[in-house]
Design brief:
The complex is a heterodimer of chains A (about 160) and B (about 210).
Chain A lengths: L1 H9 L9 H15 L15 E2 L3 E3 L5 E7 L3 H7 L4 E4 L2 E3 L4 H11 L2 H4 L3 E6 L5 H13 L4 E8 L8
Parallel strand pairs in A: 1-7, 3-6, 6-7
Antiparallel strand pairs in A: 3-4, 4-5
Chain B lengths: L14 H15 L5 E7 L18 E6 L5 E3 L2 E3 L4 H9 L31 E6 L5 H27 L3 H9 L5 H17 L4 E3 L7
Parallel strand pairs in B: 2-5, 5-6
Antiparallel strand pairs in B: 2-3, 3-4
Helix pairs in contact in B: 2-3, 3-5, 4-5
Classes of the chains: A alpha/beta (about 160), B alpha/beta (about 210).
Chain lengths: ~160, ~210
């Protein structure tokens, strides 16, 4: 009995690791295709407020982003600390918002144009004046579906 | 000396290590994040055709936010924490007398004749100052949307035994099979009709 056992143990075959690189490569390719490197570097501070009654924006193809916030330190000395709008990785004026949205809409395929959503990524510290101006601009170009993009969290944390 | 046949084999033993290194790099940099936020519809620029629609004052719930983030609700100062409750009380009031065509048979409010007639008529009007902080504004928006969602959840629980919010997110999820989605569509629509979101945003006041 003991003999047989010992015999078996010594004959336990080694697991082949030859296919390990293949498995790892498959995983690698998956993550490579899924990864979207953030290509817009923020020129403005962008800490979003919290909210909990939120809806997800999971269809990336129909989203147009508008970012608003105070310029980060390295630009604040040049253009001041007033909240600015960032479109396409550049600073912009309020009156450029409309044409930007129209240009972005024109890039999208026809069936997505009517369902496009404007995602407003606005810093907590910004006052409503500039936000109202942007909303006014969006109404001018009939881009009426907007989303106040927020972090998920307790909305009362905003007040502190 | 015997001749070697073919080129010597390259040792592929370290291939796995290299691949692992790359894999870990992409694992770390990947963020499968989706943004989320409060969906809103802006009012169209051109006014609707029938301008002479008269809205009774009692059907409007006014919310004013001043530059310091204080709230004036129906001409009274209110703490932001009580806003949701007040909005629910207003929307769910159902003040129209029973027997009239506007009577709301699913409302569970106080049926105060001086407040809103029914949820379909009730309008929340939100006004803010140019100096109001965005974070305060979002909190108020969140509370108002929350009030609608609470009421819709209540009705969805009563009619279908499920939360409206979960039903809606399942309906909007593209991975849900279409047969389920068609069924959900009717339910979601029905609840939305019971408590339609009527949130009007007046233009920002400039001189305050």
């Amino acid at each position: 009995m003991i003999n047989i056992n010992r015999k078996n143990k010594s004959k336990l075959p080694q697991i082949s690791t030859a296919s390990l690189p293949d498995i790892v490569f498959i995983l690698l390719f998956f993550f490579m295709t899924v990864t979207v490197m953030k290509n817009t570097n923020l020129l403005v501070e962008n800490t979003l407020p919290n909210a909990n009654e939120i809806e997800k924006l999971d269809k990336k193809d129909r989203i147009i982003e508008i970012i608003v916030g105070q310029p980060i330190k390295q630009y604040a000395g040049v253009i001041g600390a007033e909240p600015k709008i960032q479109l396409n990785g550049k600073f912009a004026q309020v009156d450029e918002v409309g044409s930007y949205v129209l240009a972005k809409l024109a890039e999208k395929p026809e069936h997505l144009r009517s369902v496009a959503i404007i995602s407003l990524k606005i810093d907590k510290q910004v006052s409503m004046g500039i936000v109202s101006d942007i909303k006014e601009e969006l109404r001018q170009v009939r881009a009426l579906k907007i989303n106040y993009t927020t972090f998920e969290g307790d909305a009362f944390n905003n007040l502190q | 000396m015997p001749r070697r046949k073919g080129a010597p084999e390259v040792n592929a033993g370290s291939m796995a290590d290299i691949a692992f290194l790359l894999l870990i790099f992409f694992l770390v940099t990947t963020t499968i994040e989706t943004d989320a936020g409060l969906d809103r519809m802006l009012p169209p620029m051109e006014p609707p055709e029938d301008i002479d629609v008269v809205i009774k004052q009692k059907n409007i719930f006014t919310v004013n936010i001043n530059r310091n983030g204080q709230l004036l609700v129906e001409e009274e100062i209110m703490d932001i924490k009580n806003l949701r409750e007040a909005a629910i009380a207003f929307l769910d009031n159902g003040g129209a007398p029973s027997g009239s065509p506007e009577y709301c048979n699913y409302c569970k409010g106080k049926r105060d004749a001086s407040s809103s007639d029914n949820p379909d008529k009730a309008i929340i009007s939100l006004k803010n100052d140019r100096e109001t902080k965005y974070s305060t504004y979002i909190t108020v928006q969140n509370e108002l949307v929350g009030a609608y969602n609470d009421l819709r959840n209540r009705e969805a629980q009563r009619l279908f035994g499920a939360d409206f919010v979960t039903m809606e997110s399942e309906y909007l999820n593209p991975e849900t099979p279409s047969s389920v989605r068609d069924e959900l569509k009717d339910k979601v629509k029905r609840i939305q009709e019971l408590f339609p979101q009527k949130l009007s945003e007046a233009e920002t006041s400039k001189n305050q």
